[in-house]
Design brief:
By secondary structure, the chain is α/β, with parallel strands linked by helices. Helices cover about 40% and strands about 10% of the residues. Strands 1-6-7-10-11-12-13 form a seven-stranded parallel sheet.
């Protein structure tokens, strides 16, 4: 085995009197804590090449950055809940400035050669018609494929019962990965042209997650569940509210039933954009936490926490636009979050990957300010 890279933290961990696991569970259940759980969502790939803070210290990944900044540890496990095997990733065409690449979801994407991180321009999907779906489902979405079986013994060794950090179980995606497979436009058309096909895709995703939960839940003691459902943009969801309510939400309820049977009552999903039109159905389906809660695509986190009370939790919600402005802007924004941290059910961090336009010095100021405002002896107890 290759030697693990040594990451020397640039700052001490926040002082505390609880374990990370105890703190996370109490904070997300509106109970008193020693201090706020300290975490961040990560950074753009450019940050690892442009921030001297990272370059000079050999930090090249988000996992290494978590160690570098000494954040509280949080972890999650899963088995494969999507295509297996994936499509072969390969370049199918090139121009002077772009490449056409087929990715693991079978999408043909046009990406720039300059390495800039951007959402690819998808030019074609491998799944358009019910016939395409039937073929892909038979070839790549069989729940009993040996590659989907988790190594339970290894997971138990990696995450022992006496661990001091929160551990989550991943619950995949009911519609977000379908969006990935069909493209935004493809999904919009398919819900009207081939509604039975799309519902079968959702059902297939649900069965894969249910089978994954059956394989994992009996063997480890989990603190939370997580999911990924990037189906909203600044004007709301990319599927109709009725579709979400009638097709997606019932599958959430089935998954939630399995989670609840094993004592898991915290389930977050990663969904960017304006989630407000479908928020009632997230909650009814069992998803009671939003992550990383983009402010400019939706609202200030106080708006939803006020509307839904202690039924809802939020992780994230620190406006990345303010992080890129100035220390004064950062301080002004963090001050609006003080009441939310004090009430519980809220963990503040950048509302997506931190972009490279944020100055490293300002980012360190932000981390220092978070500790002063939300660290030990901050009045949260």
């Amino acid at each position: 085995m290759p030697a693990t890279k040594e990451i020397i933290p640039c700052r001490p961990p926040w002082r505390g009197t609880m374990t990370a696991r105890e703190r996370f569970n109490r904070q997300m259940h509106y109970q008193t804590v020693d201090r706020c759980f300290n975490m961040e969502f990560g950074y753009w790939e450019e940050n690892f090449h442009e921030w001297d803070l990272f370059v000079n210290n050999g930090v090249t990944t988000n996992a290494e950055a978590d160690l570098f900044f000494n954040f509280d540890r949080i972890a999650a496990v899963s088995s494969n809940c999507w295509l297996f095997p994936c499509f072969e990733h390969k370049i199918v065409e090139e121009t002077a400035t772009t490449s056409i690449v087929r990715n693991g979801d079978g999408l043909f994407a046009e990406i720039p050669k300059n390495g800039h991180s951007t959402i690819p321009h998808y030019v074609k999907s491998s799944v358009v018609t019910p016939e395409d779906w039937k073929r892909v489902k038979a070839e790549r979405l069989q729940s009993d494929h040996p590659g989907r079986l988790p190594d339970i013994a290894a997971l138990k060794r990696q995450h022992p019962p006496a661990r001091d950090y929160p551990l989550g179980i991943h619950c995949g995606s009911m519609i977000g990965k379908i969006r990935d497979m069909l493209t935004f436009e493809g999904l919009a058309y398919a819900t009207y042209d081939y509604p039975e096909m799309v519902e079968d895709m959702v059902e297939t995703c649900c069965v894969l997650v249910e089978d994954s939960l059956d394989r994992l839940l009996p063997h480890l003691d989990f603190d939370y569940a997580s999911g990924w459902e990037d189906i909203c943009f600044k004007n709301g969801p990319i599927v109709s509210v009725d579709f979400f309510k009638n097709v997606v939400m019932p599958r959430y309820k089935r998954i939630h039933k399995k989670l609840a049977a094993h004592g898991i009552d915290l389930w977050y999903t990663d969904c960017d954009g304006d989630v407000r039109p479908i928020m009632p159905y997230f909650l009814e389906g069992g998803i009671n936490c939003l992550f990383p809660f983009e402010v400019n695509g939706c609202a200030h986190p106080a708006e939803l926490l006020k509307q839904y009370g202690k039924e809802l939790r939020i992780m994230g919600g620190v406006d990345k636009i303010q992080l890129g402005k100035s220390p004064a802007a950062i301080k002004s924004y963090l001050e609006t979050l003080v009441p939310l941290v004090q009430r519980g059910g809220y963990i503040p961090f950048c509302d997506h990957r931190c972009p490279p336009n944020v100055k490293p010095a300002d980012y360190l100021y932000y981390l220092d300010l978070k500790e002063r405002m939300f660290g030990l002896n901050n009045g949260l107890r």
